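Please produce the structure of this protein holding magnesium ion.
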Amino acid sequence: MTETITHSEEETLRWAEDFSRQLNRGDVVALRGNLGAGKTVVSRGIARGLGFTGGVHSPSYALVHEYPNDPPIFHLDLYRLAPHADLHEIGVEHYSFSEGITLIEWPERLHGLDVGVHYEVQLERIDDETRKIRVIDLRKKETP
Ligand SMILES: Nc1ncnc2c1ncn2[C@@H]1O[C@H](COP(=O)(O)OP(=O)(O)OP(=O)(O)O)[C@@H](O)[C@H]1O
Ligand SMILES: [Mg+2]
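Below is the modeled complex.
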């Protein structure tokens, strides 16, 4: 587990750009945190770090945005996913998640559906400008 404190949106963007360097094709990153914690800011930083120069916003109408990039970036916001939805509602058959990097806001809406999350990023709002960012590598056995 790693833990970082950032003191501005800009610092979180830079942290996320840095974090993106360890990502590989097929990786799935779950972004947890309350409304306004900074999940979309982290998604934007990761996308920038991976070379994407376009806009990154929470997908509000679609559940998934695919950003044209090499590797492609799939940005999911499952806030509006119905409880007990299945993966077809996300459109798994339309996207090649395994070929790109997948970022998932509101992964708790998956209700235990296994989408192969590699990293979990937890964002906590400390005050207006301060965030605590924790990263858990779910493929690594954490030693207590
Ligand atoms: N240190 C910081 N890191 C990230 N964002 C910050 C920081 N300080 C302030 N902010 C502000 O917090 C807000 C984070 O918004 P963001 O849309 O990323 O949240 P979110 O977790 O995606 O929320 P939602 O659940 O609504 O999608 C932005 O307005 C950003 O400017
Ligand atoms: Mg968001």
